[in-house]
């Protein structure tokens, strides 16, 4: 049995479209895993060919993440009011070609501009699937598991695409790899959008209700709960973005082969998949709050050990532990927002959360690159980020979990 949710009411009946929707949303998040996790694979190739510093090379990724976050608000709001299919088709048509166009760059401003366009197109790949699946399964026993499956696509995307694109770079060069990445993005997101069918949970155009909806969102984003979750997510994404770009360069600097480093990067995402799936189960036992706090503490402990790593087995041990905790944390954050604010404005609220965290997180790679340029080491950066995550883990326990309808 499955549950349709129509304006907060549960209707029980067989509905195969429910899990088909989960599968389609999983494919979409798979592609944001490709976009966010794969830039580190291109990093050394761009640095070598153009002679850019690590701070400058990271600046292109900074623009991508900021643009993706800002776009997530608009995409989430559109998905709240119209069909998610249209929003995702637009994403496929914008981001995929922009990624492919990166294959033709000759200057840093060209890379920065194209990655900003990529971010604008990719904004829908988090806020739309995450909010869509939570609305569909709202107030059902399957809600936590459905969210965990969809969110696991991000980690699976890293596991699949980081090694794949690294292999393409070694076989045919980084320009061919950009073309490959763009084609994959457009094909998968476009196909997933076409699979989505109108369902009972999809919001209809509300015309004269839009002003009231806007007012609700403005009221909710200034609540201590929303600001607290957003602050936690900002720090977590800052750490994630730093590692996603600089883990491969760091590993190769200490003598680990590029192929092994790319596999390790993919493993962070891949091993986050069991963490994401486990998060849904843990939340049923502990609640989203404690699940979030424990996962943040695990991420912090893992990152503080990173400067001591000097062999492949130590690197793989790190990615196993960090990847699992990162996966639990990712789902717990979105689950917390759904628990606190589940309702018809969830897409826009998720977009705001992603935008705020991406704006802060976007500077992680740049700051890490600048620290490396000045000190010749990542040690200070990694240690500071790890300690900050431990502090935030304690702070997250103060969030009050009274549900507030969005």
Write the layout of secondary structure elements.
Blueprint: E1 2-6, E2 9-13, H1 17-50, H2 54-81, H3 84-101, H4 108-122, H5 124-136, H6 143-172, H7 174-195, H8 210-220, H9 224-253, H10 258-286, H11 288-304, H12 312-341, H13 346-361, H14 363-375, H15 379-396
Antiparallel strand pairs: 1-2
Explain this structure:
The structure is a single chain. This protein is mostly helical and 406 residues long. The protein has one domain: Growth Hormone, Chain: A, CATH 1.20.1250.20. The chain is built from 15 helices and 2 strands. Strands 1-2 form a two-stranded antiparallel ribbon. A hairpin with a 2-residue loop joins β1 and β2. 60% of the residues are buried. The N terminus is likely disordered.
Q: H/E element string?
A: EEHHHHHHHHHHHHHHH
Termini separation comes to 27 Å
* Form type: globular
Number of strands: 2
Mean pLDDT: 81
Would you identify the CATH H-level superfamily?
MFS general substrate transporter like domains
In helices, the fraction of residues equals: over 70%
Radius of gyration: 20 Å
Low-confidence stretches: 1-14, 200-212
The CATH topology comes to Growth Hormone, Chain: A
